[in-house]
Amino acid sequence: MKNFSIFLLACLISGCTTAPLMQESYFVEVTAGTEISAVKNIYGEPFSIRSLSNGQQEYSYIKRIDLGRSSVDQQEFIFRVNEGKIVGKECKQSGTSGFQFSQ
């Protein structure tokens, strides 16, 4: 949590105007109980927010990397949120990389 606070402070001091790309390393470190507002403070608004039938929401962040000649590697980082706190997460991969994670 200390590293998270230092990173957030560094972004605020440097005057970041655009949110950084979601990274696997940060995604893996986010634990159940983390407030979604902490994720939004660093990575901005998600690509989409979808309401689920059980009252939860899915916050989706997408990272696309152009690999050239119409080849794209895409990761979708999904946080399941209930009452403002993360209760689960999942990463979907399309393209050539093999990273996949679900919790």
Write the layout of secondary structure elements.
Layout: H1 2-14, H2 24-29, H3 36-43, E1 48-51, E2 57-68, E3 71-82, E4 85-94, E5 101-102
Antiparallel strand pairs: 1-2, 2-3, 3-4, 4-5
Give a verbal description of the structure.
The protein has helices spanning 2-14, 24-29, 36-43, and strands at 48-51, 57-68, 71-82, 85-94, 101-102. Strand 1 and strand 2 (57-68) form a beta hairpin. 26% of the residues lie in helices and 39% in strands. The longest helix is centred in the N-terminal third of the chain and has 13 residues, at 2-14. The chain is built from 3 helices and 5 strands. The two termini are 19 Å apart. It is globular and about 45 Å long. It has a single domain (2-102), classed as Beta-lactamase Inhibitory Protein, Chain:B, domain 1, CATH 3.30.1450. The chain is of the alpha+beta class. The chain has a 5-stranded antiparallel beta sheet with strand order 1-2-3-4-5, covered by helices on one side.
Distance between the termini: 19 Å
Strand-residue proportion:
35-45%
Tell me what the CATH architecture is. 2-Layer Sandwich
Structural class: alpha+beta
The total tally of domains equals: 1
Under CATH at level 1, the class stands as Alpha Beta
Q: What general outline do the C-alpha atoms trace? A: globular
Number of strands: 5
Order of strands, main sheet, comes to 1-2-3-4-5
Q: How much helix is in the residues?
A: 25-40%
Report the order of strands and helices: HHHEEEEE
Radius of gyration in whole Å, from Cα?
Answer: 14 Å
Q: What is the oligomeric state here?
A: single chain
Give the overall pLDDT as a whole number: 78
What name is given to the CATH topology?
Beta-lactamase Inhibitory Protein, Chain:B, domain 1
Taking the sheet with the most strands, its summary is: 5 strands, antiparallel
